[in-house]
Design a protein that fits this description.
about 300 residues; about 15% strand; alpha/beta
Length: about 300
Amino acid sequence: MLGPVILAASRSDKMRRFVSAAPGTKQVVDRFIAGETVDQVVPIITDAVDKGLEVTLDVVGEDITTPEQASAARDAYLELVERLKDLGLGTKAEMSIKLSMFGQALEGGHELALANVRPVVEAAAEIGTTVTLDAEDHTTLDSMFAIHEELRKDFPQTGCVIQSYLFRTEDDARRLAAAGSRVRIVKGAYKEPAEVAYQDKAEIDKAYVRIMQILMEGDGYPMIGSHDPRLISIAQELARRAGRKLDEYEFQMLYGIRSDEHLRLAAEGHRMRVYTAYGTDWYGYFMRRLAEKPANLLFFARSILTKG
């Protein structure tokens, strides 16, 4: 299984240096990362919206070691909000935030992350959009859910992410599937121990279906984060059985992966949101994309060999 090996490498400074220096890296990174700056990503956002898609934007960067870096991450998102406001794209573009980027792992990190994320959520609400808190490794989730609950007191549209490979997630889904909630379900892209997470793909997929059913039958707004055609088909059937209209749930897929499927679902009348990452600190995000799908790793390997 290459996935766990790649996820372990995502934490290695030595591997970071090697991958960054590899001659084929830029070609592959450009497939998954929309750009390094807001200016570079704006044309991609507007093109997606023109095609009937919506977006969620992630300013990549998780290895925060100082409060100053956390503040800089907050400011990067505030800059993004201002650009979305200027472009009038608030209703079509939301933001995804990893609380590690806002200082969650630092001393006093829970309070620091909450203090940093609140002004971003406030600014997003002012332009008619919202924020979704991304799930990270299992040790961070209690803090993430607590911050999510706190933010929802003033900004009930604030979303969060749950991961089907964790044993705890079915209980989390039942708690979160309430009126007004916005919940994205994904399989999970961190290396987790067998004590807390399914290790077998088939078990992860079965849990994903069980959790989708909980969300579809609940009173919240499910966001289906998957590229798997079978799971997408099952989601549509579960939505039909639950009596949901097409605008009462949405699909989400990553920028650079199955772009034709983005357009197909949108053409069928589904809400289709493209998870679009940008920024200079791309390594951790990039390595998780490689770990998720062997074809991504093969694409990267071919690029290195042909460019070397």
